[in-house]
Every structure is written in structure tokens, then in C-alpha cells.
Amino acid sequence: MNNIIEVSQLNKHYKDTHAVKDVNFEVKQGEIFGFLGPNGAGKSTTINMICTMLAPSSGSIDINGFNVTKQKNKVRESIGIIFQENTLDEKLTAGENLMLHCKFYKVPKEKREARIQEVLEIVDLVDNKSKKVETFSGGMKRRLEIARGLLHYPKVLFLDEPTVGLDPQTRAHIWEYILRLKRKEGITMFLTTHYLDEAEISDRIAIMDHGEIITINSPAQLKQSLGGDIIELSTKDNDQALQEINENISEADVTIQDDTIQMKVANSDDFISDFIKQLDVPITRLNIRKPTLNDVFLAFTGRTIQHEEN
Amino acid sequence: MEGIIGIWQRDVKKFFRDRARLFGSFTMPILFLLIFGGGMSGTMENLIGGGMEGETDFQYVQFVFPGIVAMTLLMTSVFSSLSIIEDKDFGYMKEILVSPVSRVNIAIGKMLGASTVAFLQGIMMFLLIPFLGISYDITSLLQVLPFMFLLACALSSVGLLIASFLKSTQGFQLIVQLLVMPMVFLSGALFPVSNMPSWMDIIVKINPVTYGVDVMKKVMIDVESLTPAVREAMGLNLSIFGRSITVFEEVLFMLGFTTILVLLATLSFRRSNA
Lengths: 310, 274
Fold this sequence. Notes:
Chain A has 310 residues and is α/β, with parallel strands linked by helices. Chain A has helices at residues 43-50, 72-78, 94-104, 112-122, 138-150, 168-185, 196-199, 219-225, 238-248, 268-278, 293-301, and strands at residues 3-13, 18-28, 32-36, 58-63, 66-67, 79-82, 156-160, 188-192, 204-209, 212-217, 229-235, 253-257, 260-265, 283-289.
């Protein structure tokens, strides 16, 4: 598969901070690329540079074969961006918002009406075409923005926190639309989100922290890289239990978080029966599970992802 | 080109939808017309035309009306540029800035949007003519239109440049308040500015309103029929370095002024990341 985005040796310096440090990665044509990181990791700075909104200090970015610093307009034509915040004109109707976008992106005149109809169908907003955006619900606005982002047939669609601030049901709907798009149009998607369960749909995930890309892999492999299963337990006396575990069981990777002892083990089936026999402290709660992206995130960044709405 | 039209259309369309703004922006000029055209016209006629002997055919209302129209243009142009800051606030500027529309076209589109709104409002001031006891012939009113539009462009570009740098509405309003009043008073819109101290005279001569008002008066008032004394009283002998300035030169000044400010705003858009 071809690379639709190529980022190499990307750096961004501000007066006293080095926000992005020697970042390299590629995004393949047609994939969903998840881009995760804690707040302040340099994520937004990187995306802004990719979207031509911010000039890199050094390094190069190519999108669809065009250089982001030298061929800004070609790059801008190749991408669609769904911003985290609302960027619709609420005083205009849905149709007017879409028509303006067609003009900005030089969609051929004779194709405009058909395209507007097409994208409105994708997000189920055909009946609301001539209503003012200010009368829309949060979910409808989001869908309209997604529709607008598709109008000029971008090669890459950037989705910056596409479901932030929406209720769970609407969130599920938005993802339905996004997945439908991927199946039908094969558009490459560059996704950031704070909801790690939503990042599961990515083909590959990059985790960024302290201005650097720490890892890039598929969600399955990232989870596997943590090594097998996670055992969580609480006991009558956690300190005592921790001491016993450290003395007797060498193969486990143990951490403690809010009254819960967490162990990562290669294979819980073989491990658990021996383990319970070895532990003298009575166990009050026991849970064995496969690692989630939250565990991956915690393991790589040392932090849980924060749910910040802004 | 389509980008310019899109941006321009959007602002004009929104102007017509916003009825409150449509009428609200009339209050200030009408107030000024009432005060200067009605209440103070006697005083002003004595003050300005007082030195003249015999029959004074100096009519202050005739003098001040083009000035009030110019003032309407100034206020609406500059305040319409506020839409740029609103666009930044409400996020729409991002949609514009990530699009392939060139930065200079964004600046031109925004400038033309504000100019058109101001121009339309200026024309609506003509509706007041019958109530002021003055008359103009239709041709002179038609002839003045292109100059009004040009003045609106020059003034919108002032608002555009300020708005392109600022992020907050309050900051914009503060700067505009500081700017608008001096621009009205030091332009010859309300009273002649022929005998100003030299430092003030410099401001008068770089103020685009001065030239706009002067052209509008030259077109709307039948200058030839006035006696030299009245012409002097009306401040219609605007000159730079002792030489009378022509309409052509005034147009050139406004064109140049607009171009420079639009280019500066373009640079500012190029730098900004919204």
C-alpha cells in the first residue's frame, strides 16, 4: 500500500519548549490511523503542522505527494478536517454551509448540488438541508461537519475528537457513519480521541508523549506487547500481599493502584492456580482480563488518558 | 475568485438576515443629522458663514449631509469588520483558513463584504433627504455612488487590518472607538478643516475620510454655482502643499490606501493559525 502521509524528522520549537522532537511516521492509504497521547504531548502541534496551520521548525511532511510547506494549497485540497470545536456558520442553513465549502474548494459548479445531496445522505441530514444550523442538536452539527469535510472528496479526513461532548448514543451513531464512509469510500482517516475504546477501530495506533512518538502498532499487537493477561486483586492486607508476591513470584510484573494490585502475566491459566496456593493473605476480589488500550496507554505513558472536554 | 465571492456573499447575506443590526446602525447617523443638521445648523451657519456679507446662501445642512453619509460609511465599514473577530470566536475562521482559498482573497472577500454592507447603508441615508429640506438631482446622487463605495472599501480595510490582528471583540471595540471619532472630526465631514494647526493638518491629510468627504461634496454640491466665499466656508479648497487636490488624485489615494491595508491584512492572515 502507498503512503498517503509521510512525516520525517519533524520538529517544532517554541521559545522555551521543544514541542515536537524528531517525529517520523507514515500513514498508509485507506487506513484508519489513531493518534493518541496525553494532553500536552505535542499531538495538536503535530496535527496543526500536518494540516498546514502551523509551520514546522524543521523536517518535512508530504500528503498525497504534496509538500506541506511548499504546496500548501494542493495539500489543503487533499485533506478534510473535522475540528474538535464547532466551525459551522450557525446563522446559515445546512445547505448554505455546504455550498460555501464547495466554493472554497472549487468543486465544479455543475457537480455541487449532487455532491451536497450525496454527503447529506451519508449523514442522514437530507431533510434538514434548508434549516438553520443554530436549530440543530450537537449530534446533527457534528454529522453536518463530517458531511462538509467530505464534500471535496479529500484523500485524508482528519477527525479531531469527533465525538467529544456527545452522549453515548450519538457517539455510537457518529462512529457508524465514519465506518460506513471507510467501507464505501476508502478514505484514509487520521483520528485523535480521548475515548480509548473508540480508538479500537484504528488499523494502527501511534502513541505520542513528551513530543515523541513512543510506539506505532495495531491495537491487537499493542495489547499483546503488554504480555498476556492482567490479573487484578484486592486482599485483606495489600502491603502484606505485595511483599509475599515480590518474594515468591518472580515472573509477574506488579503494580498497585487505589487498593488494587495489578499483575501482568504471560498466561493466566497456568499461573493462577499456583498463585492462589502461594498467597497467605485472604483475597477479597479477583479479576482476570485481557489488556485494553487503556492498559497499553498506561504502560507507555505512565498516565491514564484524561477526559478533558476542551 | 470564487473564494472571494463566497466570503463576500456570506457577509452580505447575513447582514440582510440580521434586522436588528440593519436598523440599529442607523441610530447614530440619524442622531448626528438631528443635532448637526437640525439643532445646530443655525449656529454652524453663523460660525462658518458668519464672516460673509449680505445674503448668505450658505446652507449648513447641504454642507453636512455628505459628511453624515460618509460617517455612516465609516461606522458601518469598521463595525462590519467585527465579523472577522466573530468568525474567529465561533470557529468559522478555521474553516476558511484551512481551505485552499488564497490568503489575499480571504482579505479581499472580507473587505468587500464589509464595504458592501456599509455602501448599502450609506445609500439608505438618501431616504432622509426629503425630510431635511434640501434637494439633489438624481444624476449627482448616482454619480456619487462609485465614490461612496470606494470610500467604504478604504474604511473597511482599516477595520480588516485591525481585526486581523486581534482576538477579542472588546479589544476591537476599544481601538475602533479611539479611531472612529477623530476620523470623523478631522475629516471635514461636520465642519471645515481649513484652518487647523499643522500637526492636526497632517492627520487630516492622511485620513481617507477627508478625501472621501471632499469628493462626495464636489459631486453632490454644485460647486460652480457657489460664490468663492461660500466655497471657502465649505472647505472645498482642499489642498496639499499649497496646491488644490483633484478628484482623480483623491480617488488614487483611496485606491492606494485600500491596497496597502488589504496587503498588510493578508500578511497577518498568513501568519495566523486561527
